[in-house]
Design a protein that fits this description.
Length: 466
């Protein structure tokens, strides 16, 4: 098992069969059904009761890259008591948070090291739960170090109210579901209401959507925004909208391929940067975050519901978010961004507790509704989102009382993962880095593409770039 994990974690490359379970919902629904009673047997097996061994662990080790899941568990899991910034208690079990930022791949490196040592680790040092993002989930779920949820006794019926794409992302090449998320991360355009009134004469979401309904209209509006003294956003804000709507995978037949929609992002972004309608600020940096405040003069950001509080600093009294100054609309194209999946580590000595955490945080409707209302999150429950969309219970202060849940739910239903691949994180990151040189006039487009290809080949030596 260790040899297989070393290969997968070091190279982050998978066979094509891994992605068979990660297509669009339409593709999945047309698969040939099992015959000779196999389908019935599979259902019976999935729903069969699993008797887990008694928990013996005194420590529950959770690995993550930021405080998000920690805050969710602290606020919404009954019985959790916070001890300090890195420790908590659930009953007699000590909870230890192993949080390493994602910068320079540090989180994955730390998790890789821990998983590779899992078999020989002492009981108190074993990984029990670990978190993954969509961009690299497949790297972990297609190894033996992530438990199938059915082996915890979590059934299809338990998860029936979740959005299918959230399960596709953490399904391995053998069809085993190996994680669950409390989030559904369809996304849109988050705009400054005061800026919209100034530039467009209205902050009504329907009217703003009409002004950014496609990339042509978006570019026209961006130039009006620039004329009014604002910047639309950073080119990096729009990148995921384009990359979520590609026609093929980054790597095809062993060769890196730049999709036509990625190329469109380059051309559109270059034109807007040259027109001073967009800038090239890196995500999460100080310059990028200047639009959180009224004096920042940034018209919009692109993001999902987790972006509202996590990225726009709603708790900060000086931000637009604190004053309900943002609005939300779909934007030029539908897309999704991110999400956090909870995976159970093989070898955990707290399997019952791990099971309860996963079920509580990702399937308990009362907990999920509480998360949505207290944290402005879009949760992974069709029932809860329908309830939130139906009345004022889904109105968000950060959006000036706007209710975004009908739109977010519709977006979650339409997410297509048919072009998901294990190369996405590396290719997306390196492409944006390389193209910044082109946008800033430090390289021609062809030179920037050469930089990208060189970086990809260094990261993935098995990928041809010529």
């Amino acid at each position: 098992m260790k040899k297989r994990l070393v290969s997968l974690l070091a190279m982050a490359t998978m066979t094509a069969t891994m992605f068979a379970a990660c297509g669009s919902s339409d593709t999945a629904s047309t698969e040939t059904p099992a015959t000779d009673g196999a389908a019935t047997e599979a259902t019976d097996s999935a729903d069969a009761a699993v008797e887990l061994p008694e928990d013996t662990g005194k420590v529950l080790n959770i690995y993550g890259w930021n405080e998000e899941f920690k805050s969710r568990l602290t606020d919404h899991y009954a019985g959790y008591t916070e001890v300090d910034a890195t420790h908590g208690k659930i009953g007699d079990v000590d909870v230890v948070w192993n949080i390493t930022p994602s910068t320079d791949n540090a989180y994955q490196n730390n998790l890789d090291e821990a998983l590779l040592a899992q078999e020989s680790a002492s009981a108190d040092d074993k990984v029990d739960l670990f978190l993954v993002e969509a961009d690299y989930a497949l790297k972990y779920v297609d190894t033996d170090y992530a438990m199938a949820l059915k082996d915890l006794g979590i059934t299809d019926a338990d998860l029936a109210d979740q959005y299918k794409y959230t399960q596709d992302i953490v399904t391995d090449s053998n069809g085993n579901l190996k994680g669950a998320s409390w989030q559904a991360c369809s996304a849109g355009l988050i705009y400054n209401r005061e800026a919209a009134k100034e530039v467009l004469g209205t902050d009504d979401p329907t009217e703003v959507q009409a002004a950014v309904a496609d990339w042509s209209k978006y570019s026209e509006t961006a130039k009006k925004v620039a004329d009014a003294g604002y910047t639309m956003c950073s080119v990096n804000d729009t990148y995921r909208v384009y990359s979520n709507n590609v026609s093929g995978k980054w790597v095809q037949d062993g060769k890196v391929v730049i999709d036509k929609n990625i190329d469109k992002w380059v051309e559109d972004s270059k034109a807007l940067v040259d027109a001073k309608a967009e800038d090239t600020d890196d995500l999460w940096g100080d310059d990028w975050g200047k639009g959180k405040r009224p004096e920042g003069k940034v018209f919009c950001y692109f993001g999902p519901a987790w972006f509202f509080n996590f990225s726009l600093d709603a708790a900060d009294e000086g931000t637009i978010a604190n004053k309900g100054g943002w609005g939300f609309c779909e934007g030029p194209q539908s897309y999704y961004w991110g999400g956090t999946w909870i995976c159970a580590a093989t070898g955990t000595d707290n399997a019952n507790l791990v099971k309860d955490i996963i079920l509580t945080m990702t399937t308990d409707k009362a907990v999920l509704k509480d998360i949505a209302q207290k944290d402005s999150d879009c949760v992974n429950s069709k029932t809860v989102l329908a309830e939130l969309a139906a009345d004022e219970s889904g109105n968000l202060d950060i959006l000036g009382g706007q209710n975004p849940y009908e739109q977010l739910a519709a977006g979650a239903e339409g997410i297509d993962l048919s072009n998901l691949s294990a190369y996405d994180q590396g290719c997306n990151e390196e492409f944006q880095k390389a193209m910044k040189n082109y946008f800033l006039g430090k390289a021609t487009k062809d030179e920037a593409i050469d930089m990208f290809k060189k970086a990809v080949h260094e990261k993935y030596p098995d990928v041809a770039v010529d």
